[in-house]
């Protein structure tokens, strides 16, 4: 049957701002940035891992009505949209300090968990992300 | 839905995140209102319009959720947990816990099972209903 998850999707309210955040601050890399005419296909991945991409999609017409897009934006900004991700890192605390110095909005400091050390943050739009330093990683 | 309401949502979310972090401290409406760029007088109303409940109730549910976690995962005494999550007296704690969960802290502890999923889910989904 299946052998990988290659693409997942998150809604962002502004793709340039999303690029600044996901690439400029979080250090992900652009896996695709293509103007298809009807939409801008913007996807990011962990550097060196294009096999797993996150599509940063802007909600709007004609994919959905303007009214629906407004509802999506409403949910994103309330932190209720979902579409979040968990990343892994070799050093949770160091990554936290680096990102915090860049003004990334953290919702949870690095905390020891049974599965490792992790913390939580929000993107500029309200989406939730976490990153974990798994216990097995040195 | 205008851009203004999205900005308002996002700022209220920032304030709610701050409440989630500082759940054991008293509700600091002036600080939260500053974070959300609204007046103190408007903070509760705007929070309620955004999230469907008052900041006070949200904080109570957050504290009870933390208490439930500590009751499940630790052996600490109920009194200890009460103060740890920010309640000022065991009376208020028991009353609020029972009101929100429908059982006493001790009864809850007896029936609880430990969970093993990322913390943000446990936090959101074990937060008792409004």
Automatic annotation (TrEMBL), chain A:
Domain VOC: 4-134
Source organism, top-level taxon: Bacteria
Name the record gives this protein: VOC family protein
InterPro entries hit by this protein: Glyas_Fos-R_dOase_dom, VOC_core
Transmembrane segments: none
Automatic annotation (TrEMBL), chain B:
PANTHER family: HTH-TYPE TRANSCRIPTIONAL ACTIVATOR RHAS, HTH-TYPE TRANSCRIPTIONAL ACTIVATOR RHAS-RELATED
InterPro entries in the record: AraC_XylS_family_regulators, HTH_AraC, HTH_AraC-typ_CS
Residue ranges of domain HTH araC/xylS-type in the record: 13-111
Annotated keywords: DNA-binding, Transcription, Transcription regulation
Protein name: AraC family transcriptional regulator
Native organism: Streptomyces poriferorum
């Amino acid at each position: 049957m299946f052998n990988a998850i290659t693409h997942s999707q998150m809604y962002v309210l502004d793709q340039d701002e999303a690029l600044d955040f996901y690439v400029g601050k979080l250090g992900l890399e652009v896996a695709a940035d293509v103007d298809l005419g009807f939409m801008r296909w913007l996807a990011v991945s962990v550097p060196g891992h294009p096999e797993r991409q996150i599509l940063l999609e802007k909600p709007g017409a004609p994919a959905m009505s303007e009214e629906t897009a407004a509802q999506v934006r409403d949910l994103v900004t309330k932190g209720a949209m979902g579409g979040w991700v968990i990343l892994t890192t070799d050093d949770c605390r160091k990554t936290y300090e680096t990102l915090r110095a860049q003004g990334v909005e953290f919702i949870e400091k690095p905390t020891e968990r049974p599965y490792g050390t992790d913390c939580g943050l929000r993107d500029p739009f309200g989406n939730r992300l976490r990153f974990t330093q798994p216990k097995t990683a040195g | 839905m205008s851009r203004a309401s999205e900005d308002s949502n996002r700022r209220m979310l920032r304030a709610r995140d701050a409440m989630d972090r500082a759940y054991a401290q008293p509700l600091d409406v002036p600080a939260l209102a500053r974070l959300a760029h609204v007046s103190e007088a408007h903070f509760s109303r705007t929070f309620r319009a955004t999230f469907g409940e008052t900041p006070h109730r949200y904080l109570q549910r957050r504290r009870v959720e933390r208490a439930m976690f500590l009751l499940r995962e630790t052996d600490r005494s109920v009194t200890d947990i009460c103060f740890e999550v920010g309640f000022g007296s065991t009376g208020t704690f028991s009353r609020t816990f029972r009101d929100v969960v429908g059982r006493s802290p001790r009864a809850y502890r007896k029936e609880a099972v430990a969970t093993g999923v990322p913390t943000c889910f446990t936090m959101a989904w074990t937060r008792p209903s409004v």
